[in-house]
Amino acid sequence: MSNKELSKLKKQLQLINETVSNDVYNLGEQFFEKIVLKLNKALDADYTFIGKLSENHNSVETLSLVNTKGVLENITYDLKNTPCQNVIGQNPCSYLKNIPELFPNDQLLIDMGIEAYVGVPLYDSKKEPTGILVCLFKNEIKDTYAIESILMIFASRASAELEHMKLYDALEKHKKKLESTVEYRTKELNKKNKELESSNQELAKTLESLQKAQIQLIQSEKMATLGILTSGVAHEINNPLNYLIGAQIGLSNYFENHQSLDPENTNILLESINVGVKRISNIVNGLNQFSRNNENMNEDCDIHSILNNCFEMLSSISKHKVDIIKKYSEVTILVQGNSGKLHQVFLNILSNSIQSITGHGKIEVVTKIKEREIIIEIEDNGHGIEKDILHKISDPFFTTKPPGQGTGLGLSISTSIINEHNGALKFDSEPNKGTKVTINLPLK
Amino acid sequence: MNNKLKILYVDDELINRKIFEIVFAHKYEIFIASDGYEGLKILEETPDILIIISDMSMPGLNGVEFIKKAKEAYPLKKYYMLSGFQITPEIEAKIEDGLILKYFEKPLNKKEIETEIEKYN
Hints:
The complex is a heterodimer of chains A (444) and B (121). Chain A has 444 residues and is α+β, with helices and mostly antiparallel strands. In chain A, 53% of the residues lie in helices and 20% in strands.
C-alpha cells in the first residue's frame, strides 16, 4: 500500500470516527452540511450532496450541496434520465466514467463536467425511499467499493436524520395546527361566553322591567278596582245622605213654620246634621277623586281642595297625632292636569309624612305662587331621611319599610306623575329633624 | 188653581221622592214618578210641566234614556239630572250637546236647585 493510499485511508477512518462521535449528533440543522463537506473532502469528490425525494417521487431537492470550495445553493432536479433514477428506492450505484455518454439527457451533469458518479439510496425505518447521497467526480475514478461503503455508512445515519427531521417537521406542523385550533376554539369560546353574558344581562334587564311592569299593572289594577268600588260605594252613600239632607231641610222648614219649643237646641241639632252630611259628602268626593281612573290631563285641579281632600282621607291616621298647619295662598290655585293622579301624589307624600312622625308632630303645608309657578311645600318634623339614601327614595321598589308593608313605588309613581304635569319634586331632609318636600307646578 | 211652577221628579227610591216633595212643595207643584215610563205618562197627562229632574240609575229606562225619549216628545221643556254618581264624561257630553241643562249631585243642594229653577219662574 502506497503512502498516498495510506493517508487516504487514514482520512476516511478519521471521518468515520468523527461521524459516529457524539459531536455530530448534536449538530441539528447543520448536520447535513457538515457531513457533506467532510465526505466531499475525504473522498476527493468534486461535488457531494444529500437530496430529499419529493412526495410524488419525480424530483429531488438537495438539502446540502457542496463542492471543493464550500457550500453551494440548494437545487431541485427531475429524476428522469439521471443516474439517480437508478439509485433511489434501489441499491447503491456507481459509474467509474463516461457519464455524459451514459446519460446524454442529464444536461445538468454534462454542464457540471461530471465523469464519474457514486450514489447510495436513503430509506426510512419503514423501508420507504426518502432520498439520496451522491458523490460526483470530474475525472474517472478507479475504485468505487470504498467510496460506496463509506457513503453507505453515512447513508443510514443521514436517513435517520432525514426521518427525524421529517417527523420533527410534522410534529411542528401538528403543534402549530393544534395551537391555532386551540386559539380558534378559545376565541370561539370567548365569543360564545360574551354572547351568553350579554344575553344574560338582557334577560336580567327584561326580567326586571317585567317585574316592574307587573307591579305597576297590579297597582293600576288595584286603582281601577278601587275606582269601580268607590264610585259604587259613593252612589250608595250619596243616596242616604240625600235622605238626611232632605230630612234636615224638611225639619228646618217645619220649625220655621211651627215654632220650635227649644229653638236654641233644635237649631244646633239641625246644623249638626248639616255639617255631618257635608263632611261625609266631602270624604266620598275625595275618595272618588283619588280613584278616578282616567288619563285626562285637561282637568282644572284646585290644589287646595285636593290637599283638603287628602287630609280628610288621612284624618283617621293623623288625628290626635299630627297638627296640620295650612298656610295656603289667598287665591285659588288651579293646575291643568289629572285630578285623580294629583290626589295620589299628595296622599302619598302626606301619608309618608304622617308615618315618619312618632309620638306627636306637625305637618306644615305652604302654597304660594311665584311668577308663573306654583310652589307647594310640605314640611314635617318626623324622623327624616338619612343622607346616603336620600337620592334613592324615588327609585322604583326602594323602600325602608319591612317586606310586604310598602311596594317602594309610591314616590316613584309620584315623581312620574309630577313630571307628567311638567313639574318638579324635591326632597330636603335631616335625620331626626324632619323632611321638606317641595313641589313645583306650572300655573294654569 | 195655583200658579206654581210644575216640576216632574223621577226617582226609583221612595224616600228620595218624598224628600224632594217635602223640600220643594211649598214653592213648586211637584209631580213624582218612580221610573221613566211613569214619568212619560205623567208628562202626557200634564202638558204644562216645564221642569223635569231625573235620577240617573233606575230600573227600566235610566235617566239619560228617559230624558232622551221625553225630549223627543217635548223638546221645549227643561231637563235636569240629580244623581248620587259623580259626573262622568258621558254625562258631561250630554250637557254639552244640550240634552241636560245641569247635573246636580246628591246629597241635594236646595239653593243650587232653586237658583237654577227660578230662571224659569
